Amino acid sequence: MKYSVCTISFRHQLISLERIANWAKAHQFDAIELWGVHAKNLRQSPDFTLESLVEKGLSVSMVSDYLPLDGDLNVALESAKSLCTITRSWGAKKLRTFSGNKPSAGMSVAERAACTKRLREYCKIAEDYGVYLIVETHPNTLADTLASTLQLIEEVNHPALRINFDVIHVWEMGSDPVFALNQLAPLIEHMHFKNITQRNLLNVFSPANVYAPAGSREGMTPLFNGEYDFKQFLAYLMKESGVPWQNMDASLEWFGPDVFTTLDNDRKELAKLESHFIQQSQPELTV
User: pTM to 2 decimals?
Assistant: First the structure.
């Protein structure tokens, strides 16, 4: 897989993109997932550019932001155009957003129709810019259950719409990520990997908590130490799914402390797993 470091991991630290990029390249990462606010602000600074990343052998895999599904339409469409411009300026072709901020089960038919219509407008703009609009599987959105996510894809009905498959959030939905992977695979363009020590602590990943400097970090844990069995999921992905996983982009989404140490250890463990699976898939040589 092609692994990305998320700049959102450093949201409460004073660390330059150049330092993050140098570290990422030295620790087997392939790309950077740029948080939208970072992508916007860095664009105004000549200190570090796309060319600087390319020289290091890195790329920007995705720009992650939040397009509104309500409010003034013209303002929203201009925001989408601006974000697509920024995404392309970083050499990326994926713009991540959430499908609202309300549980799908609590939406009326009219509300849902309005949201999917807005998403379709964003998709049209994204297509004009050569960008995919990436909707994340996430609680309290129109992609908060597998059924609602599939319905969303059908309702938006646009080729620019794709999915960011957040494995833990799919598990949080109550779906088996392996089953959901098979249902959504044709449209999955990106994955997010993270884990939790106990299912009942999953609220620690709610945006309001994650973005708060004093928010709780209880339950956040390295990828292979949590309640969800990532080794089993990855074994299926790499050995049985039929998904071309070698070319799949996946971000290690870490929100806790000790960012560099945690990401380094997780990346090493992922490298070991991949090496093991590749060796198993090689046909035995006979003399």
Answer: 0.95
